[in-house]
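Go through this pair.

…
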Amino acid sequence: HWLRIDRYYSSEQSFESDNEAVDSISGLGETLTVMDEMENANENPEVSFQPIMCQHCNHAPCETVCPVAATSHGRQGQNHMAYNRCVGTRYCANNCPYKVRRFNWFRYNKNDEFDYNMNDDLGRMVLNPDVVVRSRGVMEKCSMCIQMTQKTILDAKLEGRKIIDGEFQTACSQVCGSNAIVFGDINDSDSKIKKLKEDDRSYHLLESVGTKPNVVYQTKIRNKDIS
């Protein structure tokens, strides 16, 4: 869900064949009376992408409304989903201020309407065995790759060592070539993610709601004034 703000603009080219539109815009205020004074965004297009996934809130509104406790808070801070408990009331989706929960309307497995690789024996071999298969009628969302977190913890425990900064990963942080997504232990004072969180550019989405999300964003530097 991305809104390309840079594409919402007004310029002479927008209304060169519509005099009525030019007249109506010019009456909106003194700053819009002269078309030449308007910024032409075509000369400097800019776009920002902001992926919105489950925010894994510490005060998650979805957890309090589920009648069967299918969604709960984990020890590592993630918001968990027990798919075999979910009865599909969709209360959690209605109560989520970020609107990141999705209802599974279809049974994709063994369904002739969907020509996916999972419908044959060879295709099923590529499915991740560590991820629970979701059926029709349940809610789905970003799990913050809990299976990868658990594997990292168990591997370090078997080897009798502490978890090294950078070992915690999610699927999206692994494949992001620009390192725009960082995952880690916020309780580790020396971790990279802890330092990023303390940066002045960091913020949470909808902080006024009071959900205390565990996903932190960094605002883009936009000050381009020449000193």
Observations:
- Residues 14 and 22 are 9 Å apart (CA to CA).
- The chain has two domains: 5-43, 61-218.
